[in-house]
Automatic annotation (TrEMBL):
Residues 18-112, 124-223, 231-319, 338-401, 407-502 form the Ig-like domain. It is found in: Membrane; Secreted. GO terms for molecular function: cell-cell adhesion mediator activity. This is Hemolin. It is a single-pass membrane protein. Gene3D superfamilies: Immunoglobulins. Keywords: Cell adhesion, Disulfide bond, Glycoprotein, Immunoglobulin domain, Membrane, Repeat, Secreted, Signal, Transmembrane, Transmembrane helix. It comes from Bombyx mori. Residues 1-21 form the signal peptide. Belongs to the hemolin family. One of its GO terms (cellular component) is axon.
Length: 538
């Protein structure tokens, strides 16, 4: 049996210095994946970043992809393993679903493009060669066809004449035998001769399983022409698809007496113009050869077969499939608190729908420009632009880092009522750049002014980069009651949080220090008391 299918798309990324924290995919799942139930598949996903990201898989609704015994397993190295399975174990939620790869670190989160999975049931298949009757001196067409269930997964690898390999697939345009079609499934025999009346067969390979089949021989007959006949089209390449940058041979064949000659045309500026030879495009009688296909090659090409008794024309249609390429500029922005930033998404490869994610969460609309106003800590992280259309999708990412930002509180203490005796720790945490410092106040006065052996203050930076502070009270007393404030401040500003600590005991009032206010601005002055419960007298 053919080896397990290993599917991965490698994305070449620009070099990133080891000290950089930029997060990006090195290996991303393809937009679509078909695999045979007899082989299974491995889908690889890898990402780079400092610190190293954690790789996981998600379903279309954002839920984690779990293991399904005997069918699916998400390996620790980021590989999604889909096991071979019998047809009766087919599950649409496993084998016909949408998957995403997720890479996460303290820098942010990125998601891969959607991968649409399709499990193809392994069914018996056969090949058959269909041949046309040939007139001596004219052209003959032989077509290699496969069973309908596998035709999209079968590619012809060789042609045979009387059991001998006829010609390599890279045959030159001037030869008598030309292999054409998007799947190498058409053999053109030009200037047919009696010696060409032989048995022909084709060999093809199943792209999902690697299995090969050879068709039974088919006899081509060549007869001498009698009388006269206007050209009659036998076949033309009606619907061919080629990837941008790939090569394709469009084929046109007609029967007539005398043998017809061929011309190729294309509509240009509203009129039908003859196709002439160029570096990329060659006209060789029945065959139009297009090398390194471009988007402009998509459309209709007209073949004309004619002799002195008439002519016939028929259109060949070609679609050049272009891969989407997405980029986001700038790739890194450092923004100060309160500023605004703009990310621009560029999409190459045709029209596509656009959407944005911030750390894996939808943000913005469907525009190619994303604006972030009033930058705060929550805005930092990875911004991704996704471009999507029916058969393809692509994404690119950029990072927003914080420059100098005013402090933001992430943890604060709550109001409490305690009896004397137990120890207590009031806790605050904040972020900012430069890292903020904390000051503790009791009833508006710095704690240092109320210092005693019962109180101590600690301050440190945790693993997330937040500054954490504790006000520790070793044994709560009634006089420790009051309105406590933790204030974080740096060069960009300050932020504070205040609430009361109530300790059961007799009332007491501290002295009120100077209060500075701004004329015309409302100001609240709190009574600096301790003790609980109490009733304030007006």
């Amino acid at each position: 049996m053919f080896a397990d299918a290993v599917i991965s798309v490698i994305v070449l990324a620009a070099f990133v210095a080891p000290s950089s924290s930029q997060l990006m995919f090195l290996m991303e799942p393809p937009p679509r994946l078909s695999f045979s139930n007899s082989t299974g598949a491995r889908v690889s996903c890898a990402a780079h970043g400092t610190p190293a990201p954690i790789i996981s898989w998600m379903s279309e609704d954002g839920s984690p992809v779990g293991d399904v015994p005997g069918l699916r397993e998400a390996l620790p190295n980021g590989t999604l393993w889909l096991s071979p399975f019998p047809a009766e174990q087919y599950r649409s939620d496993v084998h016909a679903s949408v998957y995403r790869c997720r890479a996460a670190s303290t820098v942010g989160v990125i998601l891969s493009r959607d991968m649409r999975l399709e499990a193809v049931m392994d069914t018996p298949w056969e090949l058959k060669v269909q041949s046309s009757h040939a007139m001596a001196g004219g052209a003959a067409i032989l077509t290699c066809t496969s069973s309908a269930a596998v035709k999209h997964h079968v590619i012809v690898t060789r042609w045979f004449q009387d059991g001998v390999v006829l010609a390599p697939l890279a045959v030159e345009a001037e030869g008598r035998y030309i292999i054409g079609g998007g799947r190498n499934d058409i053999l053109v025999v030009r200037d047919a001769r009696p010696g060409d009346a032989s048995s022909y067969s084709c060999e093809a390979e199943h792209s999902l399983t690697g299995e090969k089949r050879k068709s039974p021989p088919s006899i081509l007959t060549v007869s001498h022409s009698t009388g006269s006949m206007a050209p009659r089209m036998l076949m033309v390449s009606e619907d061919e698809v080629v990837l941008q940058g790939g090569d394709i041979r469009l084929v046109c064949c007609a029967i007539g007496t005398p043998p017809p000659t061929y011309s190729w045309f294309r509509y240009t500026n509203g009129r039908l113009s003859p196709v002439s030879n160029s570096i990329r495009i060659s006209v060789s009688d029945q065959v139009l050869i297009i090398r390194r296909a471009q988007i402009s090659d998509s459309g209709t090409w007209t073949c004309r077969a004619h002799n002195q008794y008439g002519e016939q024309r028929k259109d060949a249609r070609l679609r050049v499939r272009v891969r989407l390429v997405v980029s986001v500029h700038p790739q890194l922005q450092v923004a100060n608190s309160g500023s605004s930033v703009v990310f621009n998404c560029s999409v190459e490869g045709g029209d596509a729908r656009v959407r944005w994610l911030h750390d894996g969460v939808p943000v913005g609309g469907g525009e190619k420009v994303l604006r972030v106003h009033g930058v705060v800590r929550a805005h930092r992280g990875i911004y991704q632009c996704f471009a999507e259309r029916d058969l393809d999708s692509a994404q690119a990412a950029a990072e927003l880092r914080l420059g100098d930002t005013a402090p933001e509180l992430h943890y604060t203490f709550i109001e409490q009522a305690l009896h004397p005796g137990p120890s207590l720790a009031l806790h605050c945490a904040a972020s900012g750049s430069p890292p903020p410092r904390f000051t503790w106040l009791l009833d508006g006065q710095p704690i240092e002014d109320h210092s005693n052996p019962q109180r101590s203050i600690t301050q440190f930076v945790n693993t997330n980069g937040d500054v954490v502070t504790y006000l520790n009270l070793t044994s709560v007393r009634p006089e420790d009651g009051g309105r406590y404030t933790c204030r974080a401040h740096n060069t960009r500003g300050s932020v504070d949080h205040s609430t009361r600590l109530n300790v059961y005991g007799p009332p007491s009032i501290r002295s009120i220090g100077p209060v500075r206010v701004v004329a015309g601005v409302n100001t609240t002055v709190y009574c600096p008391y301790s003790g609980f419960p109490i009733r304030l007298m007006e």
